[in-house]
Amino acid sequence: MIAELGLAALWMAAALAALQLAAGFLAARQDDAEIAILVRPAAVVQGVLCAFAFAMLVWLFARTDLSVKLVAMNSHSDKPLVFKLAGAWGNHEGSMLLWVTVMSAAGALIALVERRLPDRTMQATLAAQGFVALGFYAFLLFSSNPFERLPIPALEGNGLNPLLQDIGLAFHPPTLYLGYVGLSVAFSFAVGALLTRQVTPDFARAMRPWVLGAWIFLTVGITAGSYWAYYELGWGGWWFWDPVENASLMPWLAATALLHSASVLAARDALRAWTIMLGVVAFSMSMVGTFLVRSGILTSVHAFAVDPERGTFILVLLAIYIGGALAVFGLRAGSVAEGGKFEAVSREGALVINNVLLSAILGVVLLGTLYPLLTEAMGVRVSVGPPYFDPVGAIFVVPMLLVMLVGPLLRWRQDRLARVRRSAIIGMVAVLAGLLLAIALGAGVLPTLGIALGAGLAVASVLPLKGRRLRRVPLATRGMVTAHLGIAVALLGMASESAFSEERLAAIKVGQQASVGPWQVTLAAVDPVAGPNWTALEGVMLASYDGGAPIELHPQARSFWSPPQETTESALATRWNGQLYAVLGKAADGERWQVRLWWKPFVTLIWYGGLLVALGGLLALLGRVRDDLRRRYVTRKAAERREAAA
Amino acid sequence: MRGWRFFLPLGIFALFLGIAGYQLTQPKDDFVHSTMIGRPMPEFAMRPASPDRPGLSLADLKDGTPKLLNIWASWCIPCAAEAPQLAALKAQGAPIVGVAIRDRPEDVAAFLARYGNPFDRIGADDLSELQLAIGSSGVPETFVIDGDGIIRYQHIGDIRASDVPMLMEKLREAGR
Question: I want to staple A43 with a disulfide (CB 3.0 to 4.6 A). Which of A111, A179, A249, B34 is the partner?
Answer without folding.
Answer: A111
